[in-house]
Amino acid sequence: MIYAFDGFIPVVHESAFVHPQASVTGNVIIGADVYVGPGAAIRGDWGGIVIEDGCNVQENCTIHMFPGVVVRLEASAHIGHGAIVHGARIGANALIGMNAVIMDNAVVGAGCVVGALCFVPTGMEIPPRKVVVGNPAKIVKDVTDDMLDWKTSGTQLYQQLPAAMRATWREVEPLREIPVDRPTQSSVLKNWKDTREGGTT
């Protein structure tokens, strides 16, 4: 659902995928290979929103701002399910965990990992490559090279998703029983805990 508002029409790169159950309004610019999931609300009514190339904004996220503010997600920023970004700036290749809240004028540095349910208060500036958790947010350690590689791999899956959605996604009627030749899905990325237990960090 793409809506004009007050003379602004969203700009969406042709390689991006915006789910039809997402809502994109007004002064919004969405770059190449961006994925926007169902239920996301990206509302550029009082200010602007720039989502640079390779970002993903997952299901039920909200991006908004106070009047006159521009929210920017720098290239390859990864916004987890249910997160809220209000008037903030998210650095390149940063990860915002599920249901985290990033408040006005906060800056999350490049390569940061913000934990699930974390609350980053107004005006907090997080240097690059920091792990941040808690309510209120607290910097607990640096992002290691292994952790950043893991995050980047996860984001690359989302960067491939728009093309896959355009190629195979369609509305269908459900099956009534499981077919005998139903395909399996491979584990192309382990979660961070399993990766650490595997001895790679």
UniProtKB/TrEMBL annotation:
Pfam family of the protein (one): Hexapep
GO MF term (any one): transferase activity
Keyword Ribonucleoprotein: no
Alphabetic keyword roster: Transferase
Stored PANTHER family: DYNACTIN SUBUNIT P25, GAMMA CARBONIC ANHYDRASE-LIKE 1, MITOCHONDRIAL-RELATED
Protein name, entry field: Transferase hexapeptide repeat family protein
Source organism of this protein record: Gemmatimonas groenlandica
